[in-house]
Amino acid sequence: MDIRGIYNRLKNEVAKFGAIGLVAYVIDVGIFNALLHNSLSEKPLTAKTISAVVATTFAYFGNRFWTFKNRARTSYRREYLLFVLLNGVGMSIQLTCLAISHYLLDFTSALADNISGNGFGLVLGTLFRFWSYRKWVFLAND
Questions:
Q1: What is the C-alpha separation between 120 and 122, in angstroms, rounded?
Q2: How many CB atoms within 10 Å of residue 7?
């Protein structure tokens, strides 16, 4: 494949990955708030766990069957477990950015927390997720 073909494929994967991520984010926030304001009002961690599992499962299938549909397939169990594990690493990157900003640099305002966690952290975590999913979860065709 020539450089133009590689660029176009990468561009398409990035766009689809972003779209799936955005929908997964809406699912996560929507389910979390629905549960938090109804049946799990006293259990925010349970509500967040449920919303994250649903959103992660959506993201896995969206990426498997749309973003990376032309890549080699392995077992669903292997892919899903790696997807969840690498998603956790991506989340840890976000949390690390937030922790450094909040606790080491003493930027403690809500704005600073959002910039570090949902700005820098989100960008770095998403870059890691995209790279790692392409490398270890949704393998290139030989």
A1: 6
A2: 11
* Percent of the chain that is helix, strand, coil (3-state, to 5): 80, 0, 20
Q: Print pLDDT tens along the chain (142 aa).
A: 689 988 999 999 999 999 999 999 999 999 999 998 999 888 888 999 999 999 999 999 999 999 999 999 999 999 999 999 999 999 999 999 999 998 999 998 989 988 988 899 899 999 999 999 999 999 988 6
One-letter amino acid for residue 127 of the chain: L
**Tokens representing 135?**
């490398």
- Does an H or E element contain 116, and which? none
**CB-based burial, 85-115: b 16+ in 10 Å, e otherwise:** ebbeebeebbeebbeebbeeeeeeeeebbeb
Give yes or no for a contact between 55 and 31, defined as CB atoms under 8 angstroms apart.
yes
**47: Cβ contacts below 8 Å, ≥ 6 apart:** 31, 32, 35, 36, 40
